[in-house]
Design brief:
210 residues, transmembrane helix, rod-shaped, membrane, 3 helices, mainly alpha, transmembrane
Length: 210
Amino acid sequence: MAESQEPRGAPIRPARNVGEPVPPIPSVDMSDPEGASTAYSHFRTGLSRHRTGLSEHRTDLSEYRTDLSGHRTEMSMRRTGMSFQRTRMSADRTLMSEMRTALSLIGFGFTINQAFQKMQDAGSIQNVNAPRNFGVALLVFGIVLLAGGIVRHVQFATELRDRRKIMTEDGLIHSDSRFPISVTLVIALCLLALALAAVLGIVFNIALLG
């Protein structure tokens, strides 16, 4: 697994080149070949120093661009790592939405069953099979929805964790933080257990919840 790295600051652009200016073309006396040759030699030396300064400045700019590319790559790796965390949070929000829908079905089904059961106990109605079956059906629908959401969430989280591990080993992203335990998943499992207990209590007429 790749080691965590401290984020580096943005590289500093090198100062503008203020090296030696271009030397002026010398005026020579063509009747003095040696003097002309010496003057042109000094001129070429000045040009060489000027070109050397430009080359050094271009080298500094190239190093700056290289550091800038490395900085951008580092930031991209960290943004990708944070995207994994945001995707995990989105999966938790999706599971929460499924939990709300399932809880509505479970609560409505349980309420219908209890209401008609109380009416039968009070002697208001004789046959409660139809509403009882309807309430149980809503409970079952809620349980199926909740169980499916839990399975989908676990599969997605496992695939996401495996993909993150592969990208970390390949050095494509940083994995400074671990995926925390999904509290939403824990609550969903508890809600599923309660719903199953409610269905068993209705079907077999036993008080599992007291």
